[in-house]
Amino acid sequence: MKQKFFNLFLVLMFTAGGLLAQKAKQGHTNINKFRQLKQELPTPNEQRLASGAPGPKYTQQKVDYKMDITLNDDKRSISGSETITYHNNSTDELAYLWVQLDQNMRAADSKTPDIQPNRIPKKLSKRRYDRAFPEESFEGGFNIMSVTNADGSNLSYTINQTMMRINLPKPLASGETFEFNISWWYNINNHRTQGGRSGYEHFPENGNNNYVIAQFYPRMCVYDNVEGWQNDQFWGRSEFALEFGDFTVNITVPEDHMLGATGVLQNPNEVLSKKELKRWKKAQRTFDNPVVIRTQKEAEEIEKTKATGTKTWKFYAENVRDYAFATSRKFIWDAMAVDINGRTVMAHSLYSKEANPLYGDHSTRATAQTLKTYSEYTFDYPYHKAISVDGQMGMEYPQICFNPGRPDLPDGGYSDRMKYRMVKVTVHEVGHNFFPMIVNSDERQWTWMDEGLNSYMEMLAELAYDPNFPIRRGYPKNIVRYMSGDQSRLAPIMSKGDNVYSFGNNAYGKPATGLWMLRQTIMGPELFDHAFKTYAQRWKFKHPTPADFFRTMEDASAMDLDWFWRGWFYTTDVTDIGIKGVKKFYTKKSNNSVEFVQDETVGLGFENTQDKYHYEITYNKPGGLVMPIIVEFTYNDGTKERKMYPAEIWRYNDKEVTKVFSSSKQIKKIEIDPDLETADVDTSNNKYPPKDEDQFSKFKKKMKS
Questions:
Q1: Which domain holds residue 123?
Q2: pLDDT in tens, 263-282
Q3: Distance CA 404, CA 685 (A)
């Protein structure tokens, strides 16, 4: 019997040994958090270099537009005819062209409502109910009247929802241009009741409308060597990819309207009164305070009646990627000059009396500050003006943006909350002139490249406008709640904007926080600012990709940040770094050696007759992200000292790491990340000893076990 058991024991031993040996032979891929981003990033080429810069063979298309636009105030519709000249600067031959028809998102056969899941709520506001269940259907979407060749002959085309394919008579060779015409019209939506990124706001007391008009003309898609045609459908959220070009635009509106638009006004003498012209010229010489060009009193008088005639405003815009305008007989207008490195740029605001005095006090000043701050950290603002419009939304276009904010107090004044909200959105939307209107990323694919970078820059401009500005997005502590949420409802930053749950946090908050952490904690302002400016200057008036940004930031700083891009941008991992344990040592010295003896007493203090206190501190990392370890030591005499270990401290062990800290003073307390710089989702393990005595006893038992 004993022999049988012995034989069985041998079999089990050999089997276990064989399994262990087999396991030992099994390999694995590189899972180190500091491995390079080789597999994630595209291979560099002569168009996009390994440094992150445009290469010697970088190309991009150019599109020029000539447009005649008419706004019908009575019917609240808009019509236009445009001539598009497409320059094929690529090395490719193009069999067809793609045009964006964004207004078709509102067409009767639009698929946009069908892809949105919904349920019947218990309760809705009247405004939300009317939007969800309108009594009358809205006849939206482009009505394409004609598509013709330059000679007027019909041109073949195919419409697929928000995209239109132009079927070329013959392939367009590299270096060639193609000119064609489109005539169209559509009904303008009420953006206050129906939503949208443009439209009109109706004032029923006198029948007037404020128009903020964008995505109003068929626009060419981007064609490049990264995606080919960037012709993803427009579902209403993720924004636009557009080519640069020159715009000649004539806009006909009621003759009593005040209008602002992208581009240089070509006929001010025809559309402005002599009084307005005089004030306008004064504003161009005034750098301290806005000059009112059309006053509230004048605007109130004008809006009492409606003119029967029309006038045409003529603009020319050079090297812009899009076009927008705003018009109303209700508009007040003020402006001031801004000094951008010795060059004068104009900051303008257009607003109705309903937005005053909030807009009069802050809109133009916030616009001016934005141009100054962004120019300091990126490149000098290249255009001649920036306009902030009382559009009661947040949306941006070259040289013009539509912003919210109206007085909210019974006496006609405004609260700090409303002021800061209005200034915040104004700074953000004006800031979009830089990202993506100039640093022209693909918003449809990589929303964070414009929204996230702009949200980071917005923080700097807000603090310059008001050092006590209540910043909501961007500080690491403010992203913790989102990052520590339900993982099934989180997506990496490197996700298409249409497909994420929490769009604001994913595209705005988390990327901005990441850049803030890089600047303030990981890289430092000097290295970060130089690298960020390098990226902006390399890619202004070009089409950058995420790889171009990541590579430039490393190329210009001599910092390997692949670990940060991978963790923060490609995963939904979180930061959680804690103190696992602390051991105290005193020394016994002899002539030939020094012996370290562990002190077993409770707490950090201990008897030491030598000149140094030695602590062996073990830090653990329950969270998936690697981050620097920021440690603050508080000594018995009340003084403090900080030590920051770079993120690379985790390169050999992703779970825990032990470091020795020696001091001539006795330590009273140890704390990790005292200023909440790393978005740590659980700070309960950040202090030693823990505050609670029972917790400290449990901590000691855990250390001994």
A1: 61-243
A2: 999 999 999 999 999 999 99
A3: 42
